[in-house]
Design a protein that fits this description.
The chain is α/β, with parallel strands linked by helices and 289 residues long. The chain contains 14 helices and 5 strands. The protein has 2 domains: 28 residues, no CATH class; 251 residues, Rossmann fold, CATH 3.40.50. The termini are far apart.
């Protein structure tokens, strides 16, 4: 396809078209591969760093963007639109020539929390490998809140936002249950506590039909404390050859005031029973306090 285009197009047009415009990608969607892996979340747990570490590997080909958000908020665009974000299949020929495995994937952290995303993934690309990275839900909640403040979506104080979360989400969750294609801004942006109930979300993977061999669950604090070891575990899971980047730089870090001791204790008590169920599910204590 590219060689054919090169034969007929002038250089400026060729650069625009082959450079990866949305129209060109969509027109060639049937010639493109699908994802071999998807980082499904959680949000504010390190998915951006994790994805960048992965695509720095010589055997990983990046998608057109990190967060495609197809299985949550763009599902109505269709599979042709989704495939358009991935590399052309001719990289498989290159793989055969150099006798190396080359894979591709994306990272949309809303997938693990969205009520329909995991089922949609299972029904669409059931052989894909899924990666979840989970952070202490107390720290995740504050980071999520600060992110929403920074982009202008949140006007309440942290304490007020936590207090009003159930009210903000109640009717939205009911509407999402009755209408699979309904988009809830509040569910995506104001779910500070709800997104930290990881045990419920991981059980959704098994309910969707994924096997435990298809899913890797990483602890954010542990991964970033020893990224080299965590990266090796990740490569083994994806069956990629051993390699490591020159440095493991943490991306998307935000600096903000810590929450009060009273608020932290309040959230610790809230999350404790949920965390215990998660530890039981995973068979290990993540020691979140």
């Amino acid at each position: 396809m590219k060689r054919l285009l090169k034969s007929f197009l002038p250089v400026p047009a060729r650069r625009v078209l082959i450079g990866g415009t949305a129209a060109y990608r969509l027109a060639t969607n049937t010639l493109r591969t699908g994802p071999d892996f998807i980082i499904i979340g959680g949000q504010r747990c390190g998915t951006t760093s994790l994805y960048e570490y992965l695509i720095s590997h010589p055997n990983v080909v990046r998608a057109s963007t990190k967060e495609i958000h197809f299985f949550d908020i763009n599902f109505e665009r269709g599979l042709s639109w989704y495939r358009s974000h991935f590399p052309l299949r001719d990289f498989d020929s290159y793989r055969k020539r150099i006798a190396q495995k080359r894979i591709t994937g994306e990272a949309s952290p809303y997938y693990i929390f969205h009520p329909y995303a995991l089922r949609r993934i299972a029904e669409t690309t059931h052989r894909v490998k899924l990666i979840a990275i989970l952070r202490n839900p107390i720290d995740r909640a504050l980071s999520h809140y600060q992110h929403e403040v920074s982009i202008g979506y949140e006007k309440l104080s942290f304490a007020e936002a936590i207090l009003q979360e159930s009210q903000r989400l109640a009717t939205e969750q009911d509407t999402m249950k009755s209408d699979e294609h309904y988009y809830s801004f509040a569910h995506q942006h104001y779910s500070y506590l709800s997104r930290g109930l990881y045990e419920n979300q991981l059980r959704g993977l098994w309910q969707a039909g994924f096997s435990k061999k298809q899913v890797l669950v990483l602890q954010s604090e542990e991964f970033f404390a020893d990224s080299e070891r965590g990266y090796s575990e990740l490569l083994e899971f994806l069956e990629l050859p051993a390699w490591k980047p020159s440095k493991f730089e943490r991306l998307n870090l935000q600096h903000y005031d810590h929450m009060t001791a009273d608020m932290r204790e309040h959230l610790r008590l809230f999350f404790e029973p949920h965390n215990q169920r998660l530890y039981h599910l995973l068979g290990r204590d993540l020691n979140w306090r």
